């Protein structure tokens, strides 16, 4: 697999992770007064998360034209590494040592799966 495809697959996992953080922010922004429909429609975090997911989906489909699904899909697991880190850095959520160990195992599995 080319370096370009590896970078694009990693960028896709990053985009999915950013989308998850935006969805978490969107969930928090749903609190408040007014109708739920109004709070959903005018939720800037939700809109941004949906846009990021749409871009990530377009990138994913483009990548699948060049990379076998069995090779590309393990890269999605990188989001399981990135989301807890971003949750800690951006949202101030706790980061447990078990999460870091699990992230290391996932990262090793992605690396092993990506070797050709």
List the topology elements:
Elements: H1 3-29, H2 36-41, H3 44-64, H4 69-72, H5 78-91, H6 97-114
Helix pairs in contact: 1-3, 1-5, 5-6
Short description:
The protein has 116 residues and is mainly alpha-helical. Helices cover 78% and strands 0% of the residues.
Structural class call reads mainly alpha
Number of strands: 0
How do the SSEs run, as a string of H and E?
HHHHHH
- Report the sheet-strand fraction: under 5%
- Uncertain runs are none
Please summarize the sheet with the most strands: none
What value does the average pLDDT take?
91
Number of helices: 6
Number of domains: 1
Question: Can you characterise this structure?
Answer:
The protein has 116 residues and is mainly alpha-helical. It has one domain (3-114). It is built from 6 helices and no strands. It has helices spanning 3-29, 36-41, 44-64, 69-72, 78-91, 97-114. Helix 1 (3-29) packs antiparallel against helix 3, helix 1 (3-29) packs across helix 5 and helix 5 packs antiparallel against helix 6. The longest helix is centred in the N-terminal third of the chain and has 27 residues, at 3-29. The protein starts with a helix and ends with a helix. The mean pLDDT is 91.
Keywords:
mainly alpha; about 120 residues; 6 helices
């Amino acid at each position: 697999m080319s370096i370009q495809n590896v970078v694009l697959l990693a960028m896709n996992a990053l985009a999915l992770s950013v989308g998850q953080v935006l969805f978490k922010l969107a969930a928090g922004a749903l609190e408040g007064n007014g109708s739920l429909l109004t709070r959903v429609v005018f939720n800037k975090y939700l809109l941004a998360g949906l846009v990021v997911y749409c871009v990530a989906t377009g990138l994913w489909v483009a990548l699948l034209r060049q990379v076998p699904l069995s090779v590309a899909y393990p890269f999605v697991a990188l989001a399981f590494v990135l989301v807890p880190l971003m949750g800690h850095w951006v949202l101030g959520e706790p980061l447990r040592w078990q999460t870091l160990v699990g992230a290391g195992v996932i990262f090793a599995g992605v690396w092993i799966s990506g070797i050709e």
